Amino acid sequence: MSEPRFDDRIDLNTELTNIQVLAILRRTLAFIWPVRRLFIIKFFLMCGSVIPILVAPWPFKIIIDHVIWGRPIDDAIVPFPPFIQPFVDLLVGFSPMEIMAATVALMAGLVFAFGAGDEGRQGAIAFFAQGEDTATQTENMISAGWSQAGGIWGLLDLLWNIRLVQGVTHLVRYQLFERLMRLPMQTLDDNRIGDSVYRVMYDTPTFQDLCFDITLTPSIAILTALASLYVMQYSYGDLAPQLIWVGLLSLPAVLIITMPLAAPARHASQASRASGAATTDTVEESMSNISAVQSLGNMVQEHRRFEAASQESFRQFRRVKLINVSVSFFVGLVGASMLIYVFFLVSSMIIADQLSPGDFSVLMSLYFTVAVTAGQLGQLWIDFQNNAAAARRVFLFMDLPSEDGQAPLQLSPISEGVRIEEADFTFPDGRKALSAVNFAANVGELIAIVGPTGAGKTTLAYLIPGYYRPTRGRVSIDGKDIADMAADSLRRQVTYVFQEHQLFSETITDNIRFGIPEATAAEVERFAATAGASQFIDQLPQGYSTRLGRGGNTLSVGQKQRLCIARGLARNSPVLILDEPTSSLDVEAEADLLNALQQARRNRLVIVIAHRLSTIRAADRIVFMDAGTVVEEGTHIELMARQDGAYRRFVELQTG
Ligand SMILES: Nc1ncnc2c1ncn2[C@@H]1O[C@H](COP(=O)(O)OP(=O)(O)O)[C@@H](O)[C@H]1O
Ligand SMILES: [Mg+2]
């Protein structure tokens, strides 16, 4: 086995600098705009979840100081914050047991409204079954809740959140898919399908994470930390100002500590995604070549190939996790140090009677919140790296030149013909398939392109609908350069029936009218008859409603070919190109088809790539190709008259 190939031929340079990460973040902001309303409401929902964090510490203090300790409620050492003061005023004159009952009622209300803790922070509810690699993780993120609160508020928040993250993910994935569909064939040839699947399904969900990370997560974290520090300042600022300073300093400290882990996190995430895509590629390649795999007895080898790819994917994911765990460790270290400091400071102040025991619970709880939010901030830049690696993979494909990018010209109905002048074509790998090709054909003609395998026939024909663009020279239709034409408008008028049959797992009718959805049943049947397909279709138990297997694989090769021809004819376009259409047809069907093509060419241009003599002879003109150039041109009779002509040699070889 060769070394594992993590990237396709397109996406080779996967490195990102910090500046590029910032550029990705900026670009991601654009995806928030269409769902900004959802984001604003989400912001308020998240703000609401700060309420219990600020309120919850005080009932504990009231119970410890004024119930257990029995201190009078109007004789507190430190002032209560304004939002709890009205409740405290209410308690004046209550017996300890009544204070207890009222406080418990307040807490019950809080739990009902906001939940008993920050269980939502992990998004635990929405993370259903998920595997331990990047693919399954990101897939599940689509419906992951990101709620800090529980209770009724948390439920609302979760539901809203699901709408929001799905909205963002849908937007990105739909845009990416649309771009993929419009990539030039040449680009698609160089990229493997599994990789595209991975990008659409597993790279796009990270956008919603990114969208949170650049907007709501930091703002809510800072808001929560500042609000907690403010409450502390209000009640304890005079007694222990150093508490506030330590809390404030922890925020930048955490960021600085995690900074050096950013680059390793980014590399690990990139490798993890690339190897995930490689696993998808392996499945896709083996499954689409399943007959080769089975017939050549390569099941074990393919199985091993998958096993290796899958294990590599898990291994890379463990690296990502290892870095995440290290980040948590350092962040935790800062938090723990802070809490230990507060622990000693507050305990000694209570012993010295400067604070009451209830203040211990308030301060520990508020400080814990500060430590947790500082941790979130420290995690943020690392999360950026993970997600930016995925976003890069999505943007790369969105940025590839798409087909109709710059060309604005709409093609009016073709009336004259096609002209190729001095065209060269070289594949990206350096193979030169065409050199100085000249070719002209007019509406009303039936042209045969003939020549040995690999001569460049298909490549030449691909120039006409603009699947390939010549590297030198010019292709024009009705005198206008196709380089200036919008791809859609060109494709509408040129139909290409490919040599490889591409059918969908839909009904026969749907397949035939794929290019012209408004075709009636009668028209579908007429074209099927012309393509010699009606006989076998009528014999199928469900006739035209028969659903085909994957890629039409429940039909024979000849039957598939006939359906593809019917589909091409049904489009009724001014230019029709058929690549080896008669190769799997029997003599009778071939004669029928040629008859139909001769009829069809009256008001259009028909180009047939062929090697069968019977097909070639039916043409008005023959273009003979060899080694990437047009060698001879003329009618069969003219070309046969040349004593040592290339075409004549070709025919003589065939007829023996
Ligand atoms: N995607 C590709 N990348 C590189 N070379 C290619 C590609 N497709 C075809 N070729 C090469 O271009 C030449 C012409 O191919 P093609 O036009 O398909 O020949 P024909 O249709 O006459 O049999 C062949 O040598 C073939 O190997
Ligand atoms: Mg070919």
Kindly describe this structure.
The protein has 656 residues and is an alpha/beta fold. It folds into two domains: 33-398, Up-down Bundle (ABC transporter transmembrane region fold); 417-655, P-loop containing nucleotide triphosphate hydrolases (Rossmann fold), CATH 3.40.50. It is 59% helix and 9% strand. The chain has 27 helices and ten strands. The chain has helices at residues 18-32, 36-48, 50-55, 57-68, 85-91, 96-114, 134-141, 151-181, 185-189, 193-203, 206-214, 216-236, 241-258, 262-288, 290-295, 299-351, 357-399, 457-463, 487-493, 508-512, 521-530, 534-539, 557-570, 587-600, 613-617, 636-641, 646-655; strands spanning 417-426, 432-442, 446-450, 472-477, 480-481, 494-497, 575-579, 605-609, 621-626, 629-634. The protein has a six-stranded mixed sheet, sandwiched between helices. It has a four-stranded antiparallel sheet with strand order 2-1-4-5, with helices on one face. A hairpin with a 2-residue loop joins strand 4 and strand 5 (480-481). Helix 10 (193-203) packs across helix 14 (262-288). Residues 1-6 and 119-130 have low confidence and may be disordered. It binds adenosine-5'-diphosphate and magnesium ion. Adenosine-5'-diphosphate binds at residues 189, 427, 429, 431, 433, 451, 453-459.
